[in-house]
Fold each of these.
Amino acid sequence: MSTLLHSKTEAPTNTSSTKKMLSVKNVTKTYSNQVGVENISFELMPGQVLGLLGHNGAGKSTLIKSLLGGHNYQGDIEVNGYHPIHHHAELMQHLSYISDVNVLPEWMSVRQLLRYTEGVHPSFSKQKAKQTLSNTDIKLSSKIRQLSKGMKVQLHLAIITATDTQVLILDEPTLGLDLLYRDTFYRHLLEWFHDGERAMIIASHEVSEIEHLLTDVLILKQGHCVLQKSIEDIERDYFIIDAANNHSSEIQKLQPLTSQPGLGTTKWLLEGQYKARAKSLGNVYNVGLADLFLATQTESA
Amino acid sequence: MTEWKVDQPIFRQLAAKISEQILQGVWLEQQALPSVRAVAIDLKINHLTVMKSYQLLVDEKLVEKKRGQGMYVAKGALQKLKASAHQSFINTQIPAIAKTLGIIDMSVEELVKQLAQHIKDKS
Amino acid sequence: MHPSFYMLEKELIEHKINTRLPLFAALCGLLLFVSLFFSGQAQLAFSSQIEVNGDMSDLHREFAQNLNSAIYFGTGLISLLLSMLYLSKTLRKERQEGSSMFWRSMPISNATTHGVKLGFGLVAIPAICALLVLFADCLLWLLNVSSEQVALMLEQPSLFYVLSNWIVFFGRMMVIALVLLPLATVTLAISQLVNSPLLVMFISSFAIKWLAIALFGFHGIKDFFYVITSLPMKVLTASNQFSALSEVSLLSLGIYALIGIGGYLLSLKLNRTDDVSLKTLFQ
């Protein structure tokens, strides 16, 4: 079963354009004594939203940092044809990034930060950023140090949505944000996303929060890719069946990926090919990304 | 964020929701439906899902695609939905009611009487 | 405006000491000036005392020259100090406070970043300090025109002199910047590897120097270090800034320049990614 999970069918999702925005080929990053990520490959077309899932230390941050030119790595990465390290300045005109940790310079004021970004980023519109910020509690005169975590994320998003970049990388963006901030965050993000030909990578372990935004998913475990599929393929390739316990032995034969006992019944995660055989044994459900994520993590890979 | 059920793909749930809203008169015939972009942003789901839902409704002839203008509720959609709701009531609700009547020993006459009373009170 | 202008501006906001310390010095100068100005009585007594005591023109010239070179020397020293502190801190600070990922996400090449850092440390800081010289000269010129007696003792007879002195000082600081450039690139490189780069540089140069002498009886390194480290000060104090430079052998200058290029390349390599450690150097 693990071979099936590993299969890398890279069917690009239905998008009008076929312009490749980002391509990662066989990227491996090894730290002095441990593997960061190993042999990761994927491509992003406009309109795609890739979910990068994995526990802490699974390699999400390593992969993201490599994309941003923060790591030396083996393999090939290209964003609109640019290399993260060798064409850093050009690449960063097309790529932007928000992370959970605070990367904004604390000692700057909001106004200073906007002025700086306007000065160095050719596609940044200060007007637009100010307009976005006028709908928030963030004052231009505030020092970034004085802003709450939620406000900092809002500010960072306001800066990014005021730039015309094509690829956005989000690293646990809503970690530690309350519900209200999360909702406005995703609203702004999606408005910007749909305003142009763009692609996104969202790394998170809050699977349920991003599940419906995604068009594709890549699940990492200890630096290895354990699942890489489009959401459409996942709907086709997996299902969940909630069956009475007297059918258990029969379902066991279908090589279930996981099982979760409930009241008198058990929920099984099965591969799509067995759907016809299993349908009569219980209620069939769609597989949630969270179930699949758990399955890839518990399975001994 | 919207809560989705697990027993059906989201695009089907969304299509069902839009159908129900057409039936309830939220979206009138020959009038525009919200754009794919607006739905995707409001419901925080990806646009491909929304497109699939609309496509499903187009296939069922409930919604029309107008070139360059987006999605419109098709003429006759309401009639079609009412008919199918009627049919589904007969197909699914009636058997369920019959089953309940059997369990609680209620006669059809009493049901009709209660139903008539209820409708009278409401109006 | 070119992006590097905004980057320089950012450095100015980030490293406030480079404006605050000169400002503080200017404030001290101003206080001194005010006290001098309002105690005209004392000056009168002071100057008449000199008049009585001896050959006045010589004494005046000497005093004026001393005062000028004190301003020169003091300001130059402040500038050098600020430059070295800045260069040893700037790249390290970004990494420690976690903002390096933000700067990295801006469309700026690594070479531009280095250019701006070197430009700020070696040109912008001396330019700020040159303003201090200008300020001091202006005050002395004011003193000069306001009081006949003091005028005799000062060398600031005209605004033209004040302005030209300012430009000469800045020019001299630019020669120093050139002389410091190799040291600056080495500092940038080392500051990415260790936490107290200046201390490490000081101790290691000391160690290399004495090891060479103790093990091989080789005094060349000691002499080289002496020549290089004393060069900025010599340029600052020499009557002609280029004469100090011409005293150094071409070999020493060549080696020094090579070290500088090496430091620059190393610093670029280190700052390119966040994989900073001595180990990654050899990957």
Amino acid sequence: MQKKPYLTLFLSTLQLSAFTFGGGFVIIPLMRKKFVEKLHWIDEQEMLDLTAIAQSSPGAIAVNASILVGYNVAGPLGAAVTVVGTVLPPLVIITVISLFYDAFRDNAVVSMVMAGMQAGVAAVICDVVITMARNVLKPFRWQPLAVMICAFAAAWFFSINVIWIILACGALGAVETLVRARARKERQQ
Amino acid sequence: MIYLQLFWSFFQIGLFSIGGGYAAMPLIQHQVVDLHGWLTMSQFADIITISGMTPGPIAINAATFVGEQICGLPGALVATAGCVFPSCVIVMTLAWLYYKYRSLEILQGILLGLRPAVVAMIASAGLSLVFLALFAGGVLPSSLDQVDWIAAGIFVGCLVVLRRWKTDPIAVMAGAGVAGWILYSIF
């Protein structure tokens, strides 16, 4: 290992985070390029594993991936360094925007641009939802479709706290896995 | 204690947003708009829009923005810390467990059960953004006068472009902004 991995870790994640526009998935290929191909700190298979963990853990994917890379390279202190590196660019940028927000919002041109962009963002989210729903329903099964409809109804019509919906669906998945595992064991006996 | 409230709210957002990206959106809306009234729905839509145009995760952007609006830079730092804290603990624990057990069947089962719910949550939050962008007052219109036809046109145009050509969302949003500027200036 290098003499000062902390500085390199910090600068790398800072740079990656500053250029991760859009969803968090964008940071994964960038990280792979930096830490696998360029620095050789993490091997190919490990990066895939880390990606899976980052995706399936709560929180932002970019932050999770940074924690994993930092932890992997230099332990908990490495993770702390990469988190700060990842959080700093959005913190600075949004702080600056936030300071000028009122003037920004009252400007006629800005509000026209923002109105247009809001319609655009709504379209982007619809696009994301369509793609995600397709992936979840491929191959088609009734159960995820039913879960999706119920969860949507709970959130949209009944305004149930999303945390309860997520906990309920996670519990359902756990129970289903246990039941299936038991059935498999009985079949084997 | 506003700092504690901020930390706790964004701690929950960080803890329960699974799946990254827009998955955090409904949770942020619930905490920040519905529960505490720190932002109005239109401010919330602004921060989602700004998040789309700037680097960094939505949750971090929202945490910074909300904290900053309520009690300045310390607020921004506290909210961001709250947002990141659960990730640090859980991800490191999972990494440790993962290297120990590699494939946890029960964990995969939980994640599989969560996926349709996550999609539904995003759909629900997305729909309120569609309403806000297209209809006056953000509720289902009772007459056609309440529909913002320019926004509706931009929305449909963007969706077609995104579905058909898989265009970069940043480019689409920028295009929508320019279209808004031109169309609202003309009409």
